[in-house]
């Protein structure tokens, strides 16, 4: 057997080996693809091995599993929480928690359900803050309450690998009877404010009249000027004025009755 024949047999042997080995290689080779914005927790036979960042990685052998943890900012709605205030008024709160997973290994291994834990932490913080505050303070300082809730939740959330960015009070729902009482108080305040403004306007008008009366009293000539101004205004408006004058004040023309003069305009 010559060299060429041996070479051909060797090529066929390599190809046959590759065909046989390819399924075996596929069995023991696995590609891990982690999307952007996530972290991949790699396990082998149920044991944690490492954390992989976004991208493509190849592992060899069997028993590999991959768990994704979302690292993007997210929000959790805590709705319909009935809480008693310091003055024993039942209010219903709705909160919005903004958070981000910063330690995926801790979030995956320290608790069974970190979203549920965050929900419970927010509920407890809400009850702690509201139970020590009166209803008037709660309704007037919603932003301050959110800051207090953030302080109460943040430290415990860090223990499970979650960073809480904000806790906002979305809604505060009052009982129907209390809502009606607040509406009546607001209506009474508005009516009192309107009455006060009317009284201020009337007082200002009276002060103006009193000042005008003092000026006219000290300057009688101003009364005559004001009278002439009024007559001129009435004449320009096309009104008819009837003025009574004493007898003999005006010369009597033949055929004219004494006692009154009627004219279109000012006389």
In short:
By secondary structure, the chain is of the alpha+beta class. The protein has helices at residues 3-28, 104-109, 114-130, 135-140, 142-158, 176-218, 220-236, and strands at residues 29-34, 38-44, 47-52, 55-60, 64-70, 74-84, 90-101, 162-173, 240-244, 260-264. It contains seven helices and ten strands.
Order of helices and strands: HEEEEEEEHHHHEHHEE
* Average pLDDT for all residues: 76
Helix amount, in percent?
Answer: 40-55%
Name the shape in a single word.
Answer: elongated
Structural category is alpha+beta
Strand content: 25-35%
Runs in which pLDDT lies below 50 for 5 or more consecutive residues are 258-267
CA radius of gyration is 46 Å
Total DSSP helices:
7
In terms of quaternary structure, what is this?
A: single chain
**Spatial order of strands in the largest sheet:** 3-2-5
Most strands sheet: 3 strands, antiparallel
> Count the strands?
10
The termini sit apart by: 152 Å
Overview of this structure, please?
The protein has 267 residues and is an alpha+beta fold. The protein has helices at residues 3-28, 104-109, 114-130, 135-140, 142-158, 176-218, 220-236, and strands at residues 29-34, 38-44, 47-52, 55-60, 64-70, 74-84, 90-101, 162-173, 240-244, 260-264. The protein has a three-stranded antiparallel β-sheet. Strand 2 (38-44) and strand 3 (47-52) form a beta hairpin. The chain is elongated, with a radius of gyration of 46 Å. Residues 258-267 have low confidence and may be disordered.
